[in-house]
Amino acid sequence: MFTGLVADLGEVVGVDAGDEGVRLTVRTSLAPEIAEGDSVAVNGVCLTATNIADGAFSADVMNESLRRTSLSEVAAGRSVNLELPLRAHDRLGGHFVQGHVDGVATVRDVREDGFARVVTFDAAPELLRYIVEKGSIAVDGVSLTVSAVDEDSFAVSLIPETLERTTLGTAEPGRPVNLEVDVLAKYVEKLAR
């Protein structure tokens, strides 16, 4: 369980791809806090650390995760949003994020709005049905509030702190992002059937 509050911008320093999946190696200031077997959210995808050495951790990304997330496009030298799992005594500052990506959206538009930046994403109808204005959403693992939604897209407004501390500060049209809709919306839909 995560909160969607990014703890560090890590740098991908290795991508070992094969037919069976990908082993990512990420350099991060969080490495001293990670042990083998720990969960780490990488751009919102819950992965298991398999090796920690020299200020970096490695994690295996199976083909299923590569098909369903934007991690298939991550390359060495790219920044990724990182979060360690929520501990029982931690504050819950974002919202409950599982690290189970529901799908990929694409940045449609980026525009300035005072000191904020509005980013609009194209998303599939099967994801949009769970997205509501002023509801919670995790975009690349970042807990955000939806500022607008229509039949084929949604938007979020990003404050300078989010722009500086996450990969969303470099969002540009065409870039894929991981989405995790609010899990409560999925349970409400199931109960309403």
Strand line-up in the sheet with most strands: 1-2-5-4-3-6
Structural class: mainly beta
Helix content: 10-25%
Question: Regarding CATH, which class of the largest domain?
Answer: Mainly Beta
Instruction: Tell how many strands the DSSP assignment holds.
Output: 12
Largest sheet: 6 strands, antiparallel, barrel
What is the C-alpha radius of gyration, as a whole number of Å? 16 Å
**Shape, principal axes of CA atoms:** globular
**What multimeric state do the chains show?**
single chain
What is the chain-wise order of helices and strands? EEEEEHEEEHEEEHEH
Q: Provide the domain count.
A: 2
User: What is the distance, rounded to the nearest whole angstrom, between the alpha carbons of the first and last residues?
Assistant: 27 Å
Number of helices: 4
Query: Could you list the spans in which at least 5 consecutive residues all have pLDDT below 50?
Result: none
Corresponding CATH architecture of the largest domain: Beta Barrel
User: Overall pLDDT, averaged?
Assistant: 95
Pfam family, one: Lum_binding
GO molecular function, one term: riboflavin synthase activity
Keywords: Repeat, Transferase
EC number: 2.5.1.9
Mind sketching the topology for me?
Layout: E1 8-18, E2 21-27, E3 39-42, E4 45-53, E5 56-62, H1 63-68, E6 79-83, E7 103-113, E8 116-122, H2 125-128, E9 136-139, E10 142-149, E11 153-158, H3 160-165, E12 176-181, H4 183-192
Antiparallel strand pairs: 1-2, 1-6, 2-5, 3-4, 3-6, 4-5, 7-8, 7-12, 8-11, 9-10, 9-12, 10-11
